[in-house]
Amino acid sequence: MQTKTFHRLVALTIVVLSAVVAFFVAKGADDDATPGRRASAARTDEGYAVAEADDGRRGVVDRRGEWVLRPAFKEARVEGPASQCLFLTLDDGRWTFRNPRGDEASVAELVKKIGPFAPNGLAAARTADQLWGYLDLNGQWAIAPQFRNAAKFGPDGLAMANANANNVWGFIDASGQWLFAPQCKDVAPFAANGLAAAQSDAGLWGYLDRRGQWAVAPSFQAARSFAANGLAAVRADGKWGFINQRGEWVIPPQFRDVSAFAADGSALAEDSDGYGLIDARGHWRSKQRFKLVSGAASFAGLTPAPNDDNEWGLFGRDGAWVVEPQPAFRFIGPFAAVGLAAAMDPQGRWGFIGERGEWAVKPAFKDVRNFAPDGWARAQSQAGQWGFIDASGEWVVAPKFWGLEDFRCH
């Protein structure tokens, strides 16, 4: 699938050192007695995860960490809701679909790549002829391969697709019909206000409505999707600002980069002095700037950032330190909704901290990933093997795998 800068910009690009792993923000489960923290809600009979054996082959494990699909495949994936869970495997150039009972379905011939399944049960897939179509949950073509490129269906039931004939982008529905004639060099998904950022033949960006008409004429160097507050980030004369859905400047272009506005009414912005938070009028919430940030505020309005000595702390919505930078933290990742953020100590060991900067899970791991919606987090032992821990830091699946993904189908 074509990789394009715009499609991957959902927030301000996180600036981190190359040695630091990426973290993924996830929503948590049931309330725990500790304020701001949530406990594991995972059931041992729900969900499956892809795991890797010591020979690099992949299979699928259950909540007990037991193989339900032996590691015999070059690639393995878990897709779908619990009611229609699928194991996708690739070996010898052939894809196979399996359900947890072991029933197999052969995938349509010549499929070389399969994207993630959308809630409507369709996944973009590419043939050996470099054409894209959409497979159903039985591995058969629901929309015949005909596109130069195709993206995952969104919650609005539409997918971005590139017409093979003239290399222009548009939107299709689940039957493969164009919403309107494809006409753009590039597009982004429709926002809640019914407008989609799109690039004209001339290379300028504007916003299309669902009829394919320009609601905001293409006049910008770059454009991002509208946020819930009705503002969209656009770039003009090399600087970023924000417009409303009529295309009028609300915050004139003045920043090196910006994020979308969050639910709390703030956005990250960068100028020559560094990063900080602005409000919906473009005013800085604080004079203080930060040389790096680790994601936008995602829990209790907290954003991790370092000082000049690369000691990390947490600042709040007003731009003031809530947890002062300290030598104990050499990096802090963004918070998950469980109320914990991955952090690294000076010895390179990883653990998790709470909103007050306390070690909730002591740094003892070689590597970690942020907590998933089920309340479990992947963690790597000092011996290099992966397992799952809960919010107390206890192993719930012993570290015995050489690669591991989060649980799905639950």
Structure notes:
The chain contains no helices and 36 strands. With 410 residues, it is mainly β. A six-stranded antiparallel sheet has the order 8-9-10-11-12-13, with no helix packed on it. The protein has a four-stranded antiparallel sheet with strand order 3-2-1-36, with no helix packed on it. It has a four-stranded antiparallel sheet with strand order 4-5-6-7, with no helix packed on it. The model is unreliable at 1-44 (pLDDT under 50). It starts with 48 loop residues before the first strand and ends in a 6-residue tail after the last strand. The chain has strands at residues 49-52, 58-61, 67-73, 75-79, 86-91, 94-98, 104-106, 111-114, 123-127, 132-135, 141-150, 159-163, 168-172, 186-187, 196-199, 205-208, 214-220, 222-223, 232-236, 239-243, 249-255, 257-258, 267-271, 274-278, 303-306, 312-315, 321-323, 331-335, 341-344, 350-353, 359-365, 367-368, 377-380, 386-389, 395-401, 403-404. The chain has one domain. The chain is flat. Helix content is 0%, strand content 40%.
